[in-house]
Amino acid sequence: MAWNSGRVLRLRFTTLVEAPLTVAFDVARVLGRPWPTPLREVESVRPHSDVHTHGGPGGRRTLTHTRRFTATADGTRIDEEIVGGSGLPGVLGVLADRAMRRRIVPAMQAHLDAFAAAAAARGRAVVRVVGAALVEGDRVLVAQRSGGPYDGCWEFPGGKVEPGESDLAALVRECTEELGVPIVPQEFLGEVVLDGRVGGGEPGASTMRVWSARVASGTPVAHEHAALRWVGLDELEDLDWIAADRPLLPAVRALLTST
Questions:
Q1: Which CATH number characterizes residue 179's domain?
Q2: In whole angstroms, what is the distance from residue 17 CA to residue 153 CA?
Q3: Rounded to whole angstroms, what are the CA distances from 147 to 128, 151, 194, 226?
Q4: In this structure, are 148 and 232 located in the same domain?
Q5: C-alpha angle 27/168/18, rounded to 5°?
Q6: Which pLDDT tens digits describe the chain residue by residue (259 residues)?
Q7: How far, rounded to the nearest angstrom, does the alpha carbon of residue 151 sit from its chain's CA centroid?
Q8: Which of 59, 96, 110, 149 has the most CB atoms around it within 10 Å of its CB?
Q9: Order of strands across the sheet with 9-17?
Q10: CA geometry: angle at 35 spanning 32 and 36, to 5°?
Q11: Is the pTM of the predicted complex or chain greater than 0.90?
């Protein structure tokens, strides 16, 4: 019986780290992979995925390691797949592949534990910004900047996450301060990757994370902005958005379409 070395061994691992998307990707790249044999890079799309592979002579001892990085409400999820095998035929190949599996699984588990800890530690040093797409019927609330390099541009309400504060706690606090009303966060819409400044704010900021939300009570008032507007689908693209918020528009359009 012949065994296909690319099909014998297929292992999947999923890890959730408390760190922004860019941080999780960069830390993973620095730590590399827990294999004594160097792998050749096939693909790298920062901060979403990378693929490395190794192929021995004559198709022996092949290994392909794929990683996918996804922003979620709780942090970054990393889905990893390892495909490979000894390339040996028959029973000998089965035994060799089983031995390969016994080495890979504990090595990956130790590697992922170290990775999660390193990413979380680095994530705590990153400035994070959160925003709210406040929805009322088929409209979303937008706020116009007043002063600074983005004077007159539009954004979703929100602001900086303080040290020791959760993203959602910061979102509620910032919206209460800016709009004078309590809000209820709902669906996580996505994370914008922006190294450098987010919306002209703090230097070193790298991410902005946005949730849909609703006003719990009261009427929003522009305490820190030049103006507030409720806009529909046909108005979204026409606004002069700050760079941090524009990439979220497809998710907001989908949200308004579904209401």
A1: 3.90.79.10
A2: 33
A3: 22, 5, 21, 9
A4: yes
A5: 20
A6: 223 333 468 899 999 999 999 899 999 999 988 887 788 999 999 999 999 998 765 556 788 999 999 999 999 999 999 988 776 777 777 787 888 888 889 999 999 999 999 999 988 888 889 999 999 999 999 999 998 888 999 999 999 999 889 999 999 999 999 999 999 999 999 998 765 544 444 444 468 899 999 999 999 999 999 999 999 999 999 999 998 899 999 999 999 988 6
A7: 28
A8: 96
A9: 9-17, 75-85, 62-72, 49-54, 40-45
A10: 115
A11: no
Q: How many structural domains compose the chain?
A: 2
Query: CA 3: distance to chain centroid?
Result: 38
172 Cβ contact partners less than 8 Å away, ≥ 6 residues apart: 182, 183, 185
28: domain range?
5-123
Specify the residue for token string 């966060």. 185
Looking at the fold, whether 68 and 145 belong to one and the same domain comes out as no
Residue 52 tokens read as 């490395």
Please tell me whether residues 98 and 154 are part of one structural domain.
Answer: no
Domain end, chosen from 71, 97, 123, is at 123
Instruction: Output the domain CATH number for residue 119.
Output: 3.30.530.20
Same domain, 109 and 199: no
Q: Using DSSP bridges, classify how beta strands 128-136 and 207-215 pair: parallel, antiparallel or unpaired.
A: parallel
Of 123, 142, 162, the one marking the end of a domain is: 123
For residue 181, CA distances in Å to 146, 159, 245 come to 20, 15, 22
